[in-house]
Specification:
Elements lengths: L1 H20 L2 E5 L7 H12 L6 E7 L1 H9 L4 H10 L3 H4 L1 E2 L1 H28 L6 H26 L8 E2 L1 H10 L2 H6 L3 E8 H9 L10 E5 L6 H11 L9 E3 L4 E2 L2 E2 L4 E5 L13 H5 L5 E5 L8 H7 L8 E5 L8 H5 L4 H19 L3 H4 L1
Parallel strand pairs: 1-2, 1-11, 2-5, 11-12
Antiparallel strand pairs: 3-4, 5-6, 5-10, 7-10, 8-9
Length: 367
């Protein structure tokens, strides 16, 4: 009897010791509404008793939002949040004042072009008529104005405006992410952003070739105010031209100290401009992570050794587990911007199913 009790205690001890050794880093990609897939993955990980072993979460754009939500809200509350609050209207809230500026800019030229076209049509003028030359000049002026607008947007040190408001998304963040609770979490929460000036470097320098990592990583748990947590989450998803850039100053903490230089920040997922839409790098460098689970939002995605090596980072003996959608999640219109409730529910279910299938093969994590 005593031997049986001792054996049971010993087995429990080994199980507990094994559980402590499981140090998981979770990488969450960016992808708009497709982020609901990640919610399904989180629910599966909770049911498989893996979430308590997560020591770090890294996210870009919607992946950053999910990283903060997952570590603050129960999996089923996250599911409800995705189905009832995170929608097209909350993410893409029109800012009609900004719309007015854009419409005024385009309508003036449209009226000019239409007027000249009608003159040409009514008078059946020859190809070398002054009206056709005026029409051609108006088109050239429009193209030049658009080019100058874009150049100013990307190269100006000032904050750049988008045409959609962030007010509703800000409210969701502030209502669901408790700052004090966030600071007490054992899991580090990495958020990836991109400084606007680095995007300009790519766009304005046509001789730029190859890949250079310009992304910047911040840890939400290190921040000293709820305001800066909100700013970082908004910055990580600030798509240029769609949303306002986010100004970060020295009150923001980076690498344990104040941000050395103020700047305007945008969505960290622009890989062609040096961003990291699959922000695995912080997890591969984190000494408190042994296994990295990467969640993709494209069915044809795979991190692969090439992408890891080009970021200047190696696996360093860490185990890599990839959760890839078993079917396409949709394009820009039918996927990224599709916040239809049925679509969201379908994505959550698919993420749940794919995660269980991928993770059940790794018995070293489960037992």
């Amino acid at each position: 009897m005593k031997k049986s009790i001792l054996l049971t205690v010993f087995c429990i001890f080994l199980t507990a010791a094994g559980a402590e050794e499981k140090r998981i880093g979770l990488c969450l990609s960016g992808g708009g509404a497709k982020g609901a897939y990640e919610a399904g993955v989180w629910i599966a990980m909770e049911q498989m008793h893996l979430t308590d072993n997560i020591t770090a979460v890294s996210g870009t754009s919607v992946g950053a939002l999910n990283a903060a939500l997952f570590t603050n809200v129960s999996p089923y509350s996250v599911k409800k949040l995705w189905k009832t609050q995170i929608g097209f209207d909350s993410v893409l809230t029109p800012d009609f004042d900004k719309y007015a500026d854009v419409l005024s800019f385009t309508m003036d030229y449209s009226r000019t072009l239409l007027s000249l076209y009608n003159e040409y049509k009514e008078n059946a003028l020859s190809d070398d008529s002054p009206f056709l030359k005026s029409l051609e000049q108006a088109g050239t002026d429009l193209a030049s104005s658009v080019a100058n607008y874009l150049k100013d947007y990307f190269t100006s040190g000032k904050g750049a405006k988008g045409i959609f408001s962030r007010s509703k998304l800000t409210a969701i963040i502030e209502e669901n992410i408790d700052f004090n609770s966030l600071k007490d979490k054992k899991a580090k929460i990495y958020v990836t952003c991109l400084r606007k000036s680095n995007l300009a470097r790519k766009i304005m320098n046509i001789s730029f070739t190859g890949y250079t990592d310009y992304s910047e990583t911040f840890i939400l748990n290190e921040q000293t105010s709820a305001e800066n947590v909100t700013k970082l989450l908004l910055a990580s998803s600030a798509m240029p031209g769609i949303f306002d850039t986010v100004h970060l100053d020295s009150s923001v903490i980076k690498n344990g100290s104040s941000l050395s230089e103020d700047g305007e920040y945008i969505d960290g997922g622009f890989e062609n401009a040096g961003g990291q839409n699959i922000p695995v790098k912080p997890l591969l460098k984190d000494e408190n992570v042994d296994t990295v689970i990467v969640v993709y939002l494209r069915s044809d995605s795979s991190l692969g050794d090439s992408k890891i090596s080009r970021s200047g980072t190696k696996l360093n003996g860490k185990k890599l587990i990839e959760i890839v959608p078993s079917q396409p999640l949709g394009d820009l219109v039918h996927g990224t911007l599709n916040f239809n409730e049925d679509q969201i529910d379908s994505l959550i279910r698919l993420g749940y199913t794919d995660a269980r299938k991928a993770l059940k093969e790794h018995t070293d994590l489960l037992y």
